[in-house]
Write a structure and sequence with these properties.
The complex is a heterodimer of chains A (417) and B (78). With 417 residues, chain A is an alpha/beta fold. Chain A has helices at 21-29, 65-69, 73-88, 112-124, 135-139, 143-152, 167-180, 198-206, 245-250, 279-292, 310-324, 337-340, 347-361; strands at residues 6-14, 36-37, 50-51, 101-106, 158-161, 186-193, 236-244, 257-266, 301-303, 332-334, 363-364, 389-390, 395-402, 406-413. The chains are: A alpha/beta (417), B mainly alpha (78). Chain B: Belongs to the acyl carrier protein (ACP) family.
Chain lengths: 417, 78
């Protein structure tokens, strides 16, 4: 059977750099850091006391108080960005067949704050179980997709993918597959995460995964820099409306880009460390290229996973050289996590938006905070350090890799016809 | 109005996000105040916490209106 084409027709974003897609993009191209001291709890006893939080967030700007109380922050973020994307794509159109609109979302963790609070309440009591009836439906990761479907009446396939930091990219790939197989017309995809809590920071600190540069949060996320010392936890969400090309054309939808391929692989090596030679990363990029049917030389930009950890950045760079050969040195590579921090299960969503907008605007956002070269990286690789670069991006790849050794990669292409 | 009635009304206004004027003695949580089954469970839990009582499930089923909640708690609150 012939596979259908899939295009992007709507975007939404709520990020540490800005609370809409346009604010987010402005932050990205201007090289703004979203990192600052933690405000969500007292972090004074934690090794890491900063994070990339969403700024100026007031749930009552988006929800009535009763509605907000029944959603964990990660679901509030999901509903907000879905709303921006639904309006952007004009899916709030009663003539659309809502049986054929799905919601496939990604979240690595789900309602961590809800889980933490309910367990603390129980532990502080006398052993009598007094769990809130909204505890479970606030905490479970899939409730984000549930809320979005309830709000708009989208009755197509509805679920959430969980693959740690690859979650949202897995959601995009699943959405892509359902649409190209002709099972649905439209999927509201994306991801959200809100893990800046005591358990989140404490847990990642225990793994020695986070930067501890408390004296300079804004320069802590420095992928591919010699002085990198771990990732910076971020929170937020992004939504991407994926739609079958003919369906989009027929209703005159605005088309941002085409999603032409997705790749998946596993490291099968270690629960948290990447394969030293980047075997899984190699395979996933090769799989995505094969799926998209393009040659490696056609890729202009890779929005890398690049979390700013000592090991991960090295294995990903090696994998790029392996897969792209000499073309690796013609690529623009950047890690927008240098600005946004690492949004875990939502990373693939906000980075897909960055990749799509790089195609739309012909600008590659930078990898900020580079001061010192690390001889583990080939100096011929262009990491787009510190300043955005103009480039007519026709094809952009977005990589995300998750704890557990899950690797995902998607490829977006400029739509000329 | 008794102190208990004041507190009951305040809890209902807070948890169900309704206007004070809607919280009449006859108002039913589900039919008039927009509560679903989970909201009702949460309300009963809040009453238990606020008034330091334990409301058995078979009695909780009979608390469906503002007035029923007030009279139950006036009788049982410690």
């Amino acid at each position: 059977m012939e596979l259908k084409r899939v295009v992007v027709t709507g975007l939404g974003a709520l990020t540490p750099l800005g609370n809409t897609v346009s604010e987010y993009w402005n932050g990205l191209v201007n090289g703004v850091s979203g990192a600052a001291p933690i405000t969500r709890f007292d972090a004074s006893k934690f090794k890491t006391q900063f994070a990339c939080e969403v700024k100026g967030y007031d749930p009552e700007q988006y929800f009535d108080r009763k509605e907000a109380r029944k959603m964990d922050l990660f679901t509030q973020f999901a509903v907000i960005v879905a709303d921006e994307a639904v309006k952007d794509a004009r899916l709030d159109d009663e003539s659309l067949n809502k049986e054929r609109i799905g919601v496939i979302w990604g979240s690595g963790i789900g309602g961590l704050r809800t889980f933490q609070e309910e367990c603390v309440n129980f532990a502080n009591g006398d052993g009598t179980p007094r769990f809130n009836p909204f505890f479970i439906p606030k905490m479970i990761a899939d409730i984000s997709a549930g809320h979005i479907s309830i709000k708009y009446g989208f009755r197509g396939p509805n679920f959430v993918t969980v693959s740690a930091c690859a979650s949202a990219t897995n959601a995009l790939i699943d959405s892509f597959n359902y649409i190209r197989l002709g099972m649905v017309d439209v999927v509201v995809s994306g991801g959200s995460e809100a893990a800046v809590t005591e358990a989140g920071i404490g847990g990642f600190n225990a793994l020695k995964a986070l930067s501890e540069r408390n004296d300079s949060p804004a320069t802590a996320s420095r992928p591919f820099d010699k002085e990198r010392d771990g990732f910076v936890l971020g929170e937020g969400a992004a939504a991407i409306v994926l739609e079958e090309y003919e369906h989009a054309k027929a209703r005159g939808a605005k088309i941002y880009a085409e999603l032409i391929g997705g790749g998946m692989s596993a490291d099968a090596y270690h629960i948290t460390a990447p394969h030293p030679e980047g075997l899984g990363a190699r395979n996933v990029m090769a799989n995505a290229l094969k799926d998209s049917g393009i040659r490696p030389e056609e890729v202009d930009y890779i929005n890398v996973h690049g979390t700013s950890t000592p090991l991960g950045d090295v294995s990903e760079a090696k994998a790029i050289e392996y897969v792209f050969g000499d073309h690796a040195y013609n690529l623009n590579i950047s890690s927008t996590k240098s600005m946004t921090g690492h949004l875990l299960g939502a990373a693939g969503a906000i980075e897909a938006v960055a990749s799509i907008l790089s195609i739309q605007h012909g600008v590659v956002p930078p990898t900020i905070n580079h001061t010192t070269d690390d001889d583990q990286f080939n100096p011929k690789l262009n990491f787009t350090f510190n300043q955005a670069q103009q480039r007519d991006v026709k094809v952009a790849m977005s990589n995300t890799f998750g704890f557990g050794g899950h690797n995902t990669s998607v490829i977006f292409k400029k739509v000329t016809e | 109005m008794s102190e208990i009635a004041e507190k009951v009304r305040a809890i209902i206004i807070d948890k169900l996000g309704v206007e004070e004027s809607e919280v009449t003695p006859e108002a039913s949580f589900t039919n008039d105040l927009g509560a679903d089954s989970l909201d009702t469970v949460e309300l009963i839990m809040e009453f238990e916490k606020e008034f330091n009582v334990s409301i058995p499930d078979d009695q909780a089923e009979n608390i469906a209106t503002v007035g029923q909640a007030i009279s139950y708690l006036e009788e049982h609150a410690k």
